[in-house]
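dumping this here so i dont lose it
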């Protein structure tokens, strides 16, 4: 008995049997690409307008199509649209639903293939995702700036090799995170710019014989040069349907954002240990142990660290997918969406959790003061003092090394050594050598660009605030 054909009205003409249920399960993408619905509808509306503008369909057919798309969009928003996996993907689900309510929809796919359609949808999605992530980055930056301002007078040791190195302010450390996030914001702007090119009209691989106007639909979809306002079009129909660079640039920006957030999270996990105890994390973003009643674990930060792994893995999946893939479209490319969507969702929530948890975090003044009181944090400043007294730096470094060893063997802090020990090693030294260990003064001497002095820090905070005002305006 001949198996009844189940679906695929759009490409079923040459087939006598329908595709197997197994193949349907295996090949459907609507379970994840329905996330593209609003972009698919936007793309179809622009395409229909372009077809009408070029005289390929009538104005009446165009408005019928657009009216139908609006109804579908409403049904999707209200959760009333029924996605049917036997229709494969988002494109066919929407087109078939549209054809049921508007016969004119049978003309919508004129001069278009799902290959340029998906390339268009994803470019629209990536532009949207970049702007959402930029918003969330700005929010996280602004929370960190508030926290920096609130704790502007608290000093802590800065670390290299996880060893106490030199004193910095909490604000200076937080501003380092702000710098990282600002670079991420710029990276998403770059990724959005890469996606800002219209592939629509490239067809399946070689364009179309119909007299379309690619610039017209590009303009409608906002694929325009940010400076000149001119439409931006892909230059080669084969590359247009095969190219996934925008996906990769987006996934890379997410992976690097994740790497940054994981480093921030690790700093916080360390600061939150009983051994450091610089920071107090809010109950809302910590969890208890089912066994040990005293525990308050920084799970949110551990997850920030952990989730960065999958952001990198998503980028790596895309590399694997694209490597060696012949031009042009191959169905492998359907697998380009889950990593991009996952990177977007995870990056979005990572930033939200970072902002929300840091909003409630507080610093322990006493613990920080205790940790930064170690005079050895200013050993380098003592070397600088000798340099100012005419000693070459290498020699000054050596002298301070000797003094550190001496203080260790005498079991007294370095700044309590006898003057004679200093004067015998540097003839120009005077009694002011001990002032080197005044923390406040040490910070006041660090007011050059990018340094942790307070005036410098305040001006950095102000310029980041101005940057955020500028960026949220756009
Ligand atoms: N669902 C498909 C994808 O995401 C859409 C393009 C299908 N094109 C094709 N020639 N089968 O890649």
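and the seq i came up w/
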């Amino acid at each position: 008995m001949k198996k009844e054909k189940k679906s695929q009205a759009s490409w079923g003409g040459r087939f006598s049997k329908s595709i197997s249920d197994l193949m349907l399960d295996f090949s459907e993408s609507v379970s994840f690409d329905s996330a593209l619905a609003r972009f698919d509808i936007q793309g179809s509306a622009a395409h229909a307008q372009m077809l009408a503008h070029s005289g390929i369909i009538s104005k009446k057919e165009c408005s019928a199509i657009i009216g139908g798309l609006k109804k579908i969009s409403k049904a999707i928003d209200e959760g009333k649209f029924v996605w049917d996996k036997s229709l494969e993907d988002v494109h066919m689900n929407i087109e078939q639903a549209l054809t049921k309510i508007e016969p004119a929809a049978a003309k919508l796919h004129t001069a278009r293939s799902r290959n340029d359609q998906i390339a268009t949808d994803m470019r629209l999605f990536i532009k949207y995702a970049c702007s959402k992530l930029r918003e969330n980055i700005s929010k996280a930056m602004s929370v960190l700036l508030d926290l920096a301002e609130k704790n502007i007078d608290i000093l802590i040791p800065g670390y290299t090799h996880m060893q106490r190195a030199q004193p910095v302010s909490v604000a200076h450390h937080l501003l380092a995170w702000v710098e990282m996030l600002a670079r991420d914001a710029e990276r998403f702007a770059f990724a959005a710019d890469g996606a800002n090119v219209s592939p629509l009209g490239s067809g399946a691989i070689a364009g179309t014989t119909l007299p379309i106007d690619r610039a017209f639909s590009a303009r409608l979809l906002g694929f325009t040069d940010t400076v000149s306002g001119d439409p931006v079009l892909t230059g080669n129909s084969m590359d247009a349907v095969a190219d996934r660079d925008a996906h990769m640039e987006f996934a890379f920006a997410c992976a690097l954002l994740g790497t940054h957030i994981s480093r921030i999270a690790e700093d916080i996990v360390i600061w939150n240990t009983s051994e450091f105890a610089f920071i107090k994390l809010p109950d809302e973003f910590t969890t208890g142990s089912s066994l040990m009643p005293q525990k308050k674990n920084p799970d949110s930060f551990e997850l920030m660290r952990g989730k960065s792994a999958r952001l990198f893995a998503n980028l790596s999946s895309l590399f694997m997918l694209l490597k060696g893939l012949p031009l042009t479209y191959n169905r492998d490319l359907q697998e380009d969406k889950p990593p991009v969507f996952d990177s977007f969702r995870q990056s979005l929530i990572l930033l939200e959790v970072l902002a929300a948890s840091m909003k409630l975090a507080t610093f322990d003044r006493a613990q920080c003061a205790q940790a930064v009181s170690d005079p050895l944090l200013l050993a380098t400043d003592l070397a600088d003092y000798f340099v100012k007294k005419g000693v070459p730096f290498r020699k000054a470094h050596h002298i301070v090394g000797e003094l550190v060893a001496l203080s260790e063997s005498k079991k007294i802090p370095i700044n309590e050594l006898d003057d004679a020990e200093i004067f015998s090693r540097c003839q120009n030294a005077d009694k002011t050598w001990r002032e080197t260990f005044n923390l406040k003064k040490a910070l006041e001497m660090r007011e050059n660009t990018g340094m942790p002095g307070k005036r410098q820090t305040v001006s950095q905070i102000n310029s980041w605030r101005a940057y955020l005002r500028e960026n949220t305006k756009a």
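The mean pLDDT is 95.
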